[in-house]
Amino acid sequence: MDRDEENYYGKHGEPRKFDPKFRGPIHNRHCTDIICCVIFIVVILGYIALGVVAWVHGDPRKVIYPTDSYGQFCGQRDTLNENKTILFYFNILKCASPVVLINLQCPTTQLCVSKCPDRFATYIDVQASYRYRPDQWNYFRQFCKPGFNNPRKSIAQVLRDEDCPSMIIPSRPFLKRCFPDFSTKNGVLTVANQTTFKDGRGKTRNVTDLREAANGINNVLDARSVGMKIFEDYAISWYWILIGLFIAMMLSLLFLVLLRFTAGVLFWIFIFGVIGIIGYGIWHCYWEYDHLKGIPGSDLTVYDIGFQTDFKVYLQLRQTWLAFMIILCGVEVIIILMLIFLRNRIRIAIALLKEGSRAIGYIMSTLFYPIVTFLLIAICISYWAVTAVFLATSGEPVYKVMANQTLCKYANLTCDPETFNTTNVTKLCPGAQCTFAFYGGESLYHKYIFIFQLANAFVFLWLVNFAIALGQCTLAGAFASYYWAYRKPADIPLWPLFSSFGRAIRYHTGSLAFGALILAIVQLIRVILEYLDHKLKGTQNSFTRFLLCCLKCCFWCLEKFLKFINRNAYIMIAIYGKNFCTSAKEAFFLLMRNVVRVAVLDKVTDFLLFLGKILVAGGVGVLAFFFFTQRIPVFGQEVPMLNYYWVPLLTVIIGSYLVAHGFFSVYAMCVDTLFLCFCEDLERNDGSTAKPYFMSASLHRILGKKKLSPKKA
């Protein structure tokens, strides 16, 4: 009994139980995984409710506008800060870096101002000259606390109460914050062309003391200028970018059509090319090995010279080239043996690829279904992002004690700014302030903000995986309708894609949600592990880092395996209409009975589709390069004047790759579906008049099958 007879009759010779009237995707179905469907709908309703609650409590202005030490927005309408849109730091030297300034709280008073300082000045100098130069005081006091107008107050008391900054330095706004106006002069860091400044405490300091606060600011500001130029390039070249993406779409379609005729040629050219390249590598290694003969030191071993940072040293050893030659010979032999023993399965894989191209040609609407999946995922991402922002900005201002002294026991404790000055904190911790820290609260809602954010992320992952599952099941149903049509294309049902979509939504929402739920749980665990790994990067506990690394690797493998199982389970759901677990089990065992064919088909498909993506992206990229660099005389007058020609060029290349990926993902789903149908066809039918094969004539010829008669008991 050969393999296909065994598949048909089973391992012990008993015939497998199949529906003899089966002719493709079952239309008389019933709802599957109803409990999961109900849970999924309830979760969606809860997700909508969470978004509404977050919208009621949240305030995105807390992200858009900077907040001063009193918890007030800079630039908020109908407030005293309406015309004060920029945040000013009293003593920027207390801030470690721009990251601290933007994301965390700096232990110094923060004030909303209408503009940043444009000169050097200190409170001591202004105080000494305010009588005969009141204009200097009037300028300086706009950076003091609102209402403060007492230049006679001693510098010690002013700094203690932080009524005014001890100094101001020329600054410019960035991200609505005042940063020092750094520049370089002859390679020397300066502020307003000065290398020193008075700190307002009787000392003259070098501007390099501001280096920590200035790290990265100049680069970021330069990036802002670059960003404006990039925006200008997009504004004048967007229609040419769209033309490039349209060309990529047409090339992708052309490649899929040509695969029907060139799949085998492309594959064998690549295989023989690899064999030739490896053969050349073997010859080159032998030539190097023979050329080094007799050269002093070339007969040393790798063990003799030990580890060297300069790897060129190893290329001077005959042993190195001998090892390379042995490795390449082994690879060459393995490839040749695989081609000899797997040649028939490779022919089947290529025939299935050609059949996939033919199927898409009959059901062209499937090529545009990824747009539906893209829109669904875009909606999920938008809803998740908006909900996350509103959750993050929920709550009332929370104030904490910011102390200059590291040993202050009240540091980081919550406080009330209205009663802070009447407490003993300022006496025990001189210079301590009650400043705004973040938004929060003590209500039940605010206590569980973190849990809500986790729920938001989890449901987002669930919905995204459901959208992908819906697309896979829909496409599988359409392509299965093609395969199980005995006379192609006459027997293909009308509107197979829309019929398959309707069946998936009406009967199998629960099954698709079940598969998406399993995958979402694993992905959420991976996100948590990545978060823990990020938090523990500075730890010295090697065992903890090793354990996290192992867990991350295991869950990555588990996610890949689940995606593979889910994908094939959705195909079986589309064909037979069974629940998720049954479909996953049947798909898994069907694939295991054809594991070699699976491996060969997967690699052949991956190679051809990757080659197609590179050809499309590379071809359109080369065309775009010649166009935007004005190397095509015919379009010389049409090329827009750009700041950076690589902006539209990279956009076209990346966009072309994504367009090709969208089209080829449909093709990959088509090939996977046809393969499962092909395996089912072999097990269900024997090529007789009563049980004819549904496969194409080319596949039938490759198999070289004779008609089988049912085996007698």
UniProtKB/TrEMBL annotation:
Annotated GO CC locations? plasma membrane
Catalytic activity reported = choline(out) + n H(+)(in) = choline(in) + n H(+)(out)
- A Pfam match is Choline_transpo
Which key words are in the record? Antiport, Cell membrane, Glycoprotein, Membrane, Transmembrane, Transmembrane helix, Transport
Decide whether keyword S-adenosyl-L-methionine is in the record: no
Q: Where in the cell is it found?
A: Cell membrane
Could you list the residue ranges that cross the membrane?
31-56, 238-258, 265-283, 321-342, 362-386, 459-486, 507-529, 607-628, 649-669
Transmembrane among keywords: yes
The primary site where this protein sits is membrane
Q: What kind of membrane protein is this, topologically?
A: Multi-pass membrane protein
From what superkingdom does this record's organism come?
Answer: Eukaryota
* Similarity comment text for this entry: Belongs to the CTL (choline transporter-like) family.
Q: What does this protein do?
A: Choline transporter. Choline/H+ antiporter.
Under which name does UniProt file this protein?
Answer: Choline transporter-like protein
- Organism of origin is Quiscalus mexicanus
Gene that this polypeptide is encoded by: Slc44a5
